[in-house]
Amino acid sequence: MKEKFLGVDVSSYTYNQLKKNIISDIEQNKQSFIVAINPEKILQAQKNVILLRLLNQATYQIPDGVGVLLASKIYGGNISERVTGIDMLLTLCEQASTYGKSIFLYGAQPGVAEKAKENLLRKYPNLNIVGVMDGYVDDHEYIKKQINAAKPDILCVGLGSPRQENWIVDNMKNLDVRIFQGVGGSFDVLSGRVKRAPATFQRFGIEWLYRLITEPWRIKRQIKLPMFLYKVWKNKKYNYS
């Protein structure tokens, strides 16, 4: 269940379908890799073949961005629900809490993931967070050793994109983990260090507008959305290759 936009795969699964797939993958001892896809990443992949291959290696490329939904409509596709990176992380926590699965938080500045853990446990008291490590640890063998010792079912990696995706692809075969997700700055939001857009902006898929209002310097990034949609429209005939 994938669609292709300018060469980048995007999964058309809804949250409910992803919930079932994630638990099934864990139960079947299958390694799966989740990456959030937005128009900016797709445009970056046009200039970077390595990034393009990296994104398409993922098991689930979730449609994180209203631009991806609009692109699907232009192509007559089936992506009907935006699946944001942070909400996917919360979905993983919810499923882990419900089905007795464990999770490890790796990344962000010292103390941030620890605070995110505290807030996640307030939201999901039964959640089993078996490990936390910041993204400033330099000993890569130590990192892998600590994760394998904890044996988490799910590993959330917050190192920024595409560094986190590269790290996952380079290390997943040597880790005793089933589900991997690159979560970007989600730990910063969950810790309270960064404020997320109000619920109304989230509901209508216009968190980008809130970020633009609060951080006007983002205009150079936000202007990429119409550029992306124009390229999608222009290349419509190459859809679903």
Can you describe what's shown?
With 241 residues, this protein is of the alpha/beta class. 50% of the residues lie in helices and 16% in strands. The protein has 13 helices and eight strands. It has helices at 15-27, 39-47, 49-57, 66-74, 85-99, 112-123, 140-150, 163-171, 186-191, 199-203, 207-214, 219-222, 224-234, and strands at residues 2-5, 8-11, 32-37, 60-63, 102-107, 128-133, 154-158, 179-182. The strands form two sheets. It has a six-stranded parallel sheet, sandwiched between helices. Strand 7 (154-158), helix 8 (163-171) and strand 8 form a beta-alpha-beta unit. Helix 2 (39-47) packs across helix 13 (224-234) and helix 4 runs parallel beside helix 13 (224-234). It is globular. The mean pLDDT is 90. Catalyzes the conversion of GlcNAc-PP-undecaprenol into ManNAc-GlcNAc-PP-undecaprenol, the first committed lipid intermediate in the de novo synthesis of teichoic acid.
Let me know the largest β-sheet: 6 strands, parallel
Strand content: 15-25%
Strand order of the largest sheet: 4-3-8-7-5-6
Q: Would you report the number of β strands?
A: 8
Residue share in helix: 40-55%
**How many angstroms does the end-to-end distance come to?**
14 Å
SSE-based structural type: alpha/beta
Shape call? globular
Q: Spans of 5+ residues with little confidence (pLDDT < 50)? A: none
H-E string: EEHEHHEHHEHEHEHEHHHHH
Query: How many distinct folded domains?
Result: 1
> What is the C-alpha radius of gyration, as a whole number of Å?
18 Å
Mean pLDDT: 90
